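U., I forgot to send this yesterday:
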Amino acid sequence: MKTVLKIALGVIAAIGGFVDIGDLVFNAQAGATVGYSVLWAVPVGVLGIIVFAEMSGRVAAIAKKPNFVLVKERYGSDLATFTLAASLLLTVLTLAAELGGLGFLLNYFFDVSVGFFVLIGLIAVAAAAVFMPFGGIERIFGYMGLALLVFAVASFNLDPHWSDVGQGFVPEVHSSAIYWYFVVGLIAAALMPYEIYFYSSGGIEEGWTERDMNVNRLNAIIGFGLGGVLSVAILVASTLVLRPQSITPDSLGTVALVAQIPYGELGLVVALIGMLFAIGGATIDTGFSAAYNLAQHQGWKWGKRNGLPNEPRFTLSLVAFALIAFAVVQTGIDPVSLTEYAVIFSMPVLPLTYLPILLVADDRSLMKEHANGMIARTLGWSYFGIICVLAVAAPILFTATNGGG
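Result:
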C-alpha cells in the first residue's frame, strides 16, 4: 500500500502536468482539425517523458540533485542564467494560463465572474500548497483529476471505427503544415520543461533513495502512461464529436461538452470536475517548479519538506511568481492561447533542460551501478536528437500556420 501511495507523484505529474489546460484544448483541437492521423505523436511524446522522468528521478534518488542543480553544475554561469530566465518566463506564462483556466472552470459552476474566480482559485491552490503535506497534494489533485477518464469511456461509447483509430498510430508523410504543427505540438506538450523540474524536485521532497528505484520507475511509466491514455481519449472523442460539426474548440467549456454528448449533464459535470483538479494540480506544479528553479540556481534552501516558513526566500519567490501570474491573467489575455504559446515556445528550451539529465545519468563515476544502461542511453540520446529538431521546427510551424489557425 505504501508503494501504491508513493505512485501518486507520477499521477499528479501526469494529471497536473501532462494533462493541463493546454493539453486539454490542444488534443481536442487536433482531433477536431486533423482527426486520428496525429495519434501517433502522443505515444512518441509519452515515451520521451517517461525516459527522461525516470532518469531525473534516478539522479534525484542517487545523486540527490534536482534538475536545475544539474543545469547550474554542467553549464557555465551565462548559459545557466539564460536557461533559468527562459524556463522562468515559460513556467510563469504557463502558471498564468492555469490560473485563468481555474477561473473559467469555477465560473462554469457558479456564473459570477471569471476574474473573481481566478482570485478564488489562486487562494485555494495557495492554501493547499501551504497547509497540505506534499503527499496530500499529490493524492487529492492527482486522483480527483482521474475524473478525466470520462473521456476514455466516452471515446468507447461513441463507437469509433477502430481500424481508423489504429491507422492513426502509424506515422504518415504529409505535406500539410497544419498536420505537422499538431504533431510537433502534441510531442511538445508531453515534454514541457516544468514537468521534469517538478518531478525531480518532488522525488527529493519525498526523500527518495536507492530503495525507491522501483517506485520511481512505476511513477514514470504509470503516471505519464496514464496521461497519454487521457490525451488519446480526448483526441479520439473530439474527432468523433467536434470534427463532423466543423467545431474547433477554443475554450475548456467546448472540450467538456464532448463528454456531454454520450452522458448528458452527468458527463459534463464529471468532465468539468476532472478538468478542475487537473488544472489545479498543474497550477501547483508550475508554481513550485518556478520557485524550485530559482532557489536551486541561487543555492537557497527550498521545498516543503522543512516547512515553508523556514525557507523564506523560496517561499517569497513562490508568492511572487503566483502574483505575477495573477497580474498577467487580469490583463484579460486568453489562457488557452497563452498556454499554446508556452507549449510551442518551450521547444527551443528543451535541449538545455534535458541535456544535463543525460550527462549525469550516463556518468558511472557518480551514478555507479545506477548509471544508464544501453537501452536508457540509446533512448535518451535518440530523444535528445528529436528534441533538437523540434526546437527548430516548432516556432517555424507556429508562424507558418498562424498558431494552427
